[in-house]
Design goal:
This protein is α+β, with helices and mostly antiparallel strands. 38% of the residues lie in helices and 32% in strands. It has helices at 21-37, 41-51, 59-64, 69-76, 129-138, 142-151, 158-165, 170-179; strands at residues 4-16, 55-56, 83-89, 93-99, 110-111, 113-123, 126-127, 156-157, 184-193, 198-207.
Length: 209
C-alpha cells in the first residue's frame, strides 16, 4: 500500500450558485488564514464558523477538506453557541446550516453548488490521477464509483472519494458495500494538499486480499 499521497491542486473551486460577494470574500479569507496557520481539521472548522456568516453541512467537507465533519461539529458545538436551520440541497438532499448568529431569517432555505477542480494525485509511483478520473466518467452514482474503483484494484482515500467520486461520508458507503458482501480492508495513510498546507493521516480502503 502506498505510504503517502500528495494532492497538488492546480484548480479547486467549490461555490454556491448565486453566492454573494460577501460570502466569497469571507471564504477566501478563511482559507488564507487556514493555510497560513497550517490549521488542523477542527481548527479549520472553528475558523470558518467564526468568520463566515453561515455554513452548510454539505459544503463543509469540500470547502475545508474535512472527512468527519459531523463529529467535528459535535465537538465545536460544546464551545461555540451555534444556531442550526434545516435546508434543502439541490431539491433532493437534506442538510442544515450552522451559524454563530441568532437571526436565521436571512438564510436561504435551499442551496445549490458547483464543484470544479484540477488536481494531480501523486504517489511514489508517480501521477495517479487518471484512474480515478476514468472511474468518475464511467458511472455517476458515488457509491457505484467507489465499488468500481475498489474492484479495479485502486486504493481509495477519503479525499479521493471527495474529489472524484462526490462522497462526503465515505465510511458510511464502505459499511454499505461491506454489508453487500465486499471484503474491504482499511488502513491509514499520510496525505498532503496545497490548499490547506497540511499533512495528516486519513483512512484508505482497498479490496482485502
Amino acid at each position: 500500500m502506498n505510504a503517502r499521497v500528495d494532492y497538488h491542486m492546480e484548480k479547486y473551486q467549490f461555490i454556491e450558485t448565486g453566492e454573494t460577494q460577501r460570502l466569497t470574500q469571507q471564504w477566501a479569507e478563511v482559507m488564507d488564514e487556514c493555510h497560513h496557520l497550517k490549521a488542523g481539521s477542527e481548527e479549520r472548522l472553528r475558523i470558518a464558523l467564526l468568520n463566515v456568516d453561515y455554513v452548510t453541512s454539505f459544503e463543509l467537507p469540500f470547502r475545508l477538506q474535512l472527512i468527519r465533519a459531523p463529529q467535528l461539529i459535535d465537538r465545536v458545538r460544546k464551545e461555540l453557541p451555534l444556531s442550526r436551520k434545516p435546508v434543502t440541497i439541490g431539491h433532493s438532499r437534506y442538510g442544515c446550516v450552522y451559524t454563530v448568529k441568532t437571526d436565521l431569517s436571512t438564510i436561504p432555505d435551499e442551496f445549490r453548488y458547483r464543484f470544479s477542480n484540477r488536481i494531480r494525485r501523486v504517489t511514489l509511483e508517480g501521477v495517479t490521477t487518471a484512474a480515478y478520473q476514468e472511474i468518475a466518467k464511467q458511472v455517476k452514482a458515488p457509491r457505484e464509483r467507489l465499488r468500481l474503483a475498489l474492484k479495479s484494484g485502486l486504493q481509495v482515500t477519503a479525499l479521493d472519494g471527495m474529489f472524484w467520486f462526490g462522497m462526503q461520508r465515505i465510511a458510511a458507503d464502505i459499511a454499505t458495500l461491506r454489508g453487500s458482501g465486499m471484503k474491504i480492508a482499511t488502513d491509514r495513510i499520510d496525505v498532503s494538499d496545497n490548499l490547506t498546507g497540511t499533512t495528516r493521516r486519513v483512512p484508505v480502503y482497498k479490496l482485502a486480499d
